Amino acid sequence: MTISDETLMAYADGELDAAARAAVESAMREDPQIEMRVTAHRTLRRKVQAAYAAELSEAVPERLLRAAGIAAGTPGSKVVNLQDARVAMQRSASRARPRQPQWRTAWTIAASLVAGVGLGFFMWGQTQSPLARNAAGALVARGQLAKALSNQLAAEQSRSSAVQIGLSFRAKSGDYCRTFALSGAVSPSGLACRQGAEWQVQALTQEPGAAGDSGYRTAASAMPAEILKSVEGRIAGEPLDQAGELAARQRGWMPANR
Amino acid sequence: MNTSETSQSIHEQIVTLLPRLRRFARNLTRNPHDADDVVQIAVERALTRLDQWRSDARLDSWMFKIVRNAWIDELRSRRRRDQVFLAAEAGENVGADSMASETELMSVQSAMARLPEDQREAVSLVLVEGLPYREAAEVLDVPIGTLTSRLARGREALQALLGTGGEAT
Fold this sequence. Notes:
By secondary structure, chain A is of the alpha+beta class. Helices cover 42% and strands 14% of the residues of chain A.
């Protein structure tokens, strides 16, 4: 019986069904030549595998980890953990800037497009700007953004909503503040604090997510460094947990006079 | 909530796949910088096309295919940019000599670098990445018979280049 080399190869690769396997095995018993050929296939397979095994334990470059994390589409959908964001930022601060791809990618184009916050907002908000100046000239949230700041709970929001709430906390002044991110082609994020009936925007950035270059863009590290800095400057104690957020909403975000 | 969890875990799965994607890309491109560029582009593409991934399909095969397509696109645009590059590339074993060394492991890599592209792809997917024939054929967009014949020829060439009768490790 003659058995083609491709069949022997498929046998060595474990690709044959039971009947074909049995045929090869009986041929191997009869003909040492066939057995040698199978052994050669197996040896080669092992050798090739071994030769490339070491590559799997190489460190993966930051930019690839970031690509896998940052393109997550929508900003973080969970309650942001401030501690994680701090850690992520410290880590990224001590790291070298990752190499940019040489090729144009959608991502780099988007990044250059949103170089300026003003430009970003102009584009985002032509029809329904999420921001406006109030009588005193302060930048305040309006429309969908204002609604989300007043009503949306970080733990319950859908990933697909246009506004994603990050963390909520009480400022040293007693006011409630919340970080937010807007989705879309240009997706600025910022920090707004409740002043009377308005959400005044305290910080705004176009920085694309992530406290710096932390590999994974988990919800925890999704806060841009600039926003994190303004949070750190204002926060009294720890961010609100889910219950705290709910309670503050029920209070209409009015400062608790302690 | 549930959907976000699922897509989160796909991100994690992709991160887990990164070492293999890089390895495959290196075998394709034979240049570590190109390989990482190709992987980065593939990951970005994959994430914008997650809806095209059938959850009954293997994520690794799907990603390998995107990596390969990204490389094909890149080669095409390079060809448009300058023909010179491809002329140089046609000289095959670029860097193979510098890779060659007395160690067994190196010689496998340099032997691989000498294979024609279609054989190298087949060997790389089946022997290095361990994909079943069916999956590998799908990644390469060829009938399974084409895959097995490329694989058989690639193996034969490797055996010849490595001068392996059987033993040695």
